[in-house]
Amino acid sequence: MLYKLGELFLKAIMVLTHKNIHLKERLTPLSGRVFALKLTGFQRPYIFTIEEGLIRGPLPRDLTRNYQPDVIFGGSFGVFMGLFLGRIDPDAAFFRRRITVEGSLTMALTLKNIFDDLVVI
Question: What's this model's pTM, rounded to 2 decimal places?
Fold first, then answer.
């Protein structure tokens, strides 16, 4: 059941990118990049890519072996939902070690800055 919640979370983000032209334009330069979301208590990370300004994923398990993420974001489902809903400040969460970032910090900050402009609710 937890895996399905994580999958729904990524699907919600994907819907936002499909419906928001400004967001799609800002994501386009990241095309070809691979990201992973590693949620606490989940057996495996969610791997997703950005293609033509759209978030694609999570990738099927058998395909994820072929992808090396540029950035791996880690943390609890609750923290990521708080970030998504704008209830948790991403910088504060990072400095309080509620989320972790592995890989390219430049790429992580680029993605964070893109989503900073997004208002969900």
Answer: 0.81
